[in-house]
Amino acid sequence: ERWLAELPEQRAACRLVVDEFEHLTHPDILAGLAHWLRHQPPWLTLTLASRSRPALGLASLRLRGELEEIDLSALAFDSEEAQTLCAEQLSFPPTRVSLERALRRSGGWVMALNWLVERTTTRAGFDALVERLNGGHPDFVAWFDELLAEALPPEERELMLQLGVLERFTPELMARLLEGERLTQRLEAFEQAGLFIERPDPHAQWYRFQRLFGEYLRHRRHELSLATQRTLHQRASQA
Fold first, then answer.
1. Is residue 138 a part of any domain in this protein?
2. What are the tens digits of pLDDT across the range 127-137?
């Protein structure tokens, strides 16, 4: 309240940026910031960079047209952006075919493209590394392992592995295939946590995993019991 009261009613447009917002989890801080968003002056724009979706009453802001969201698909590099990255980081230009293959395999994920350019010094080396670009590569397995260990308890991680059987899914399909309670709410929590779940059409109910993350889940599927894997495949074939 005091900070809001000290702000002028009018001034030149200004933007306040808060990076790594996912680390702010204290309820009092979130409640205070939600209050700030409801009452901040019109000349101020608040920009939050976060791996997870903040609990700040975003739904009401979205309905009022006061929220602009940049999600995983919007952050994915296109061909022109990938060419610029390679031109800045590499001493050689990759072939168009190789670069397009890298974009398909990475889903345009900037971190994966950086992994490519930081580990190669020749065009042949780049081409060879593109062929190894997969969510089951040890580098990505280790990174995704750390992400899930930090973000999910063991029972939720197992649910995520089960969900990895599907190329795409809806909450209804998920409820038919998987066992457990509150599946729809748990899916929403996965999406809220920024766990590489995409909606190809934001107005539809279909979901899918980012390509490398989906490959990682299939790589880790052996952790499920054989009986569970057989049951999931049988249910998926009948869905």
1. no
2. 999 999 999 99
Residue 177: pLDDT band (50, 70, 90) is confident
Is the domain of 163 the same as that of 213? yes
In a domain, 84, yes or no: yes
Q: By percentage, how much of the chain surpasses pLDDT 90? A: 44
Structural domains of the chain, count: 3
Residue span of the structural domain in which 179 resides? 149-238
Distance CA 21, CA 192 (A): 13
Angle at 115 between CA 77 and CA 201, to 5 degrees: 30
Residue 1 pLDDT level (bands cut at 50, 70, 90): low
